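User: Quick sanity check before I run a bigger batch. Here is a single chain. Can you write out its predicted 3D structure?
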Amino acid sequence: MKKRSYKLSLPRWALAQRESWYAELAARGLRVQKAGAMLTRFAPAPPARLRYRFEVGSDEGGLPAGQKEFYEECGWQYVLNDRPLHLFCAPEQTDAPDLHTDPAALADSLKTLRGSILSQALGTALWALLMFAQLTYLGRYTLELVLADAAAPLVWAILAVTLFRLGWGVYSMLALMRTRRMLRAGAMPRHGPGWRRAALAHRAACALLGAVYAVCLAVGLLELARYEKTPLPETGAGLPLLTLAEVEGAGYRRAAEAAPNVRDDVNQLVQTWTPGAPLGLSAWEAGYADGTQDTVYLVQRYCRLSGAGGAKAFGRGLARRLWLLEPEEYTVLKETPDTLVLANYEDGPGFHQTLLLVVDGPDVLFLHYWGGGARSADVGAAAQARFAEYTAAARGR
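Assistant: Done. Predicted structure follows.
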């Protein structure tokens, strides 16, 4: 017994092309069973010469009462429901009258299909707008930041399908408008081998989207393979990062993983790889200051980008996303064509905070140090010294 087969669907608006396609496959021994947006299912059957015709239903997707039974009495067998479309077939040798003989009436009935395609396109456009707003809100995601983010493949995959659906919706609307103009001019759709051109365009678009997905999947798997998490060492020697033991000095105690308000990846060093940042290091450390129960935190992220051209844009985007601060709230400690140092210091009763961003060529360091009690050290100066030492050694290798 032969199994069912699946083939890439033709566009919904290409009614005559779909009807011709189904008829040609029926002559080869494949009968259409179910039509989907991407795939159409066929079942094996004895070869037969059949005519297929679509009937456009109401906005709710149904046919008027008694219309299906009337068509069946005229020799047309009901095949499937592809809302708002309904497919019928009849043997070519019978004298069953064609379902559509009036071009103007057929053009008028296609308004329902136009509304269905338009609603899908508007829904996709709204989704694209919301996604764009989320990525660019307050500038927290620049292109450089997306390229260096570990979630970049997922972002690009979502963006690819969104743009594909939006573009395909616009193309479908234009094609349907062209068909309705032809019908209003008195010309009926032509059946025959012309369906192959529509099939080629649709399948090429699907293949292109599939290639984008494959690339995103490959990059995602590569990122996963290069993701590494190890216990954070007591000192940051050999790394571009500090540790709280170096900042707080003697008497500092690291927080246990089960401590309240502490992340599950506390005191871990995470190494990542992305296309935009071949080397990424991040650490979240929490502990207690000497002789107190004041909790202190140190969050750091280091990235070596693929190129220095977008390093400043990446750094500013990283600061906006993680600090939620605008440029006018920074204190610019240093800025040259190749370097940038931004800082923000806060001190108050029982609280202190240091925010630091350092950009030197393709190397970027973000640091956030905060906690209760008084500030223990000038962590900004120490972090810059460690960063400069590491980058100089890395470039000298």
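The chain has nine helices and 15 strands.

User: Great, the batch can go ahead then.
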